[in-house]
Design brief:
The complex is a heterodimer. By secondary structure, chain A is an alpha/beta fold. Chain A is about 55% helix and about 5% strand. Chain A is built from 17 helices and six strands. Chain B is flat and about 60 Å long. Classes of the chains: A alpha/beta, B mainly alpha.
């Protein structure tokens, strides 16, 4: 196996590493983030060219054809994908990256005729194992998000025990390979089991938990790439893979924290199943009921408010209402109303998803406020306009210890003087529970498709 | 344990700390581009794919290497373009004062 022994190529790889670090560093502000991505691109091209310059590289025709197929697929995918479908896209790229890492490990094992050195075998096994889990898991995540299969958790009795058994068997095979068993079929079996585990571990994870899983799979692919770096004694793979591993791990922990749950609970809790009896009652025991309102009433409230906070959720994105929401906000601003957006960390289907969706609708990023920034402002807010967000506004998370979302940090929408919730129906959100915000005296509901409702609101505000 | 492995592990450990350090500075607003950007970066497995395919001398390795190369290229190209597309959309509110100064 070729390893980059030449000093020149090693140094070129170092430049690539520095480019990648700058790419991430520039992501600290939207002002120069795009330039960062360009620097990362230059680094990648440098790494590819350096690798092609290595002694002993042949099969040029195959390399060019494979690169052209891959590039065409990647380019079309990147161009065509809708911003709402970004989580699937990221899952897909996680998967192909993980798959590539696993294949490189398989090839390495095939090349070396006898037992590998311990280090090489440990890293080969890790690369094959993590890469395969990442590949299969990502494909299931993709299928779920793309709604090719049900997005709800898929469970069966004894699932956790069965999954752990599969994982243990996989690790056992890995240990055998490291201990010196050098049979191709053992590695194939390991890959097969790892693929099975990848499928099994994503199946029971439900809709709202997808951000956590996608971050985790992102980390996995990074780690697989890093392990591949040890297989090939290649520094650029080790470092770049590990940077991704660190990033994915950090986002996983952040997302889990934003839902006030441990990562273990997300992965093994099968959260988000519809609970029996939930989501049926519009009426509680103390007689409070949901009050519906009309676009005209809402328009008057909004037009005469001093400060309006828009709380967008995934429902808004599904209805493709973000452009109309921006138009509504601009109309209100013309009338002298201060408009801000409150973004919950898990709004949307992946970390930061809502920001991208609003950026696409030309909402300037300086009016998008993060949870910690906007929560102290709700008591001074005249109208909170909740568009297609649900669980992240549920006050039960603050006080109802029996609620599945108890302890989750939420947007304190209920502290606003008046709350308008735009919602398709009284169906519960992803957590499968009722939202007591809807029963609060200051809350009124505007039922209907988010886009239709916002269009009607725009007309009504113009008329006011 | 040979020296090169020690060096590699040292590099790995430093990369972990560097990774956490750099990424903790990324605001939540940019977490989706961060994810697709790191997605692009793990496309660096393309280096491994080139090495495998470049020196493949039997059909098995050629098939494995070719597949790895297709997957890795899709990862690199797709990851980069989608990140660029997203970052292009992030714009600040135009300041009324500056507008008059601009041509």
């Amino acid at each position: 196996m070729i390893s980059p022994s030449s000093n020149l190529i090693g140094l070129l790889y170092l430049v690539t590493i520095i480019c990648f670090i700058f790419a991430l560093r520039f992501l600290s502000s939207p002002k120069h983030a795009r330039r960062g991505n360009w620097i990362g691109g230059v680094g990648m091209i440098l790494a590819i060219v350096s690798t092609l310059l290595l002694d002993g590289i042949g099969n040029w025709a195959l390399i060019v054809v494979a690169a052209m197929i891959g590039a065409a697929v990647g380019l079309v995918g990147a161009r065509k994908v809708k911003m709402t479908a970004m989580p699937q896209m990221v899952a897909l790229f996680n998967g192909v990256g993980g798959g590539a890492a696993a294949l490189v490990a398989l090839a390495e094992f095939h090349i070396v005729p006898e037992g590998l050195a311990t280090t090489a075998s440990v890293s080969t096994v890790l690369s094959a194992l993590i890469g395969s889990i990442s590949f299969a898991g990502s494909m299931i995540a993709f299928a779920k998000l793309q709604e090719l299969i049900s997005g709800r958790p898929i469970t069966f009795p004894g699932q956790n025990i069965f999954n752990i058994a599969v994982l243990l068997a996989t690790v056992g095979l890995g240990a055998a390979l490291v201990a010196g068993v050098h049979d191709q079929w053992v590695l194939w079996l390991l890959v097969g089991l790892a693929l099975l585990f990848g499928v099994l571990f994503v199946l029971p994870i439900g809709g709202a938990d997808m951000p956590v899983v996608i971050s985790l799979l992102n980390a996995f692919t990074g780690l697989a790439a890093s392990a591949t770096g040890f297989v090939l004694s290649n520094t650029v793979l080790i470092v770049a893979g590990m940077l991704v591993g660190a990033s994915g791990t950090m986002l996983t922990l952040l997302m889990a924290k934003a839902m006030n749950r441990s990562v273990t609970n997300v992965l093994f809790g099968a959260f988000g199943q519809v609970q029996a009896g939930a989501g049926t009652g519009m009426r509680t025991d103390d007689g409070r009921t949901v009050r519906a309102t009309t676009p005209e009433d809402v328009a008057v409230q909004l037009s005469f408010a001093r400060k309006v906070v828009v709380v967008p959720g995934y429902g808004m994105a599904v209805a493709q209402a973000q452009h109309d929401v921006r138009q509504l906000a601009e109309l209100l601003e013309e009338k002298g109303v201060e408009v801000q957006y409150a973004i919950h960390p898990v709004a949307g289907r992946m970390p930061g998803h809502m920001n991208v969706l609003l950026a696409e609708a030309n909402v300037p990023y300086d009016v998008l406020k993060e949870m910690d920034e906007i929560n102290p402002e709700f008591p001074q807010t005249d109208v909170a306009l909740v568009i297609g967000a649900n669980d992240v506004t549920n006050p039960a998370a603050r006080h109802d210890t029996s609620s599945p979302i108890y302890g989750m940090p939420i947007l304190d929408v209920d502290k606003a003087a008046s709350v308008i919730v735009m919602k398709r129906s009284m169906n519960p959100g992803f957590a499968g529970i009722d939202n007591e915000l809807y029963l609060e005296p200051q809350t009124t509901m505007l039922f209907g498709d988010a886009k239709d409702s916002v269009v009607k609101l725009i007309a009504a505000v113009k008329a006011t | 344990m040979n020296l090169s492995l020690v060096i590699e592990l040292t590099i790995l450990a430093l990369a972990i700390f560097l990774g956490f350090e750099v990424i903790s500075k990324v605001p939540a607003m940019l977490h989706t581009p961060l994810m697709s950007g790191t997605n692009f970066i793990h496309g660096i497995v393309i280096v491994g794919a080139i090495i495998v395919l470049g020196e493949a001398d039997d059909t098995f390795l050629k098939v494995i290497g070719f597949t790895a190369m297709v997957l890795a290229t899709a990862n690199v190209v797709g990851g980069w373009f989608v990140t660029d597309r997203m970052l292009e959309m992030f714009k600040k509110r135009p300041e009324p004062k500056q507008e008059s100064e601009k041509p």
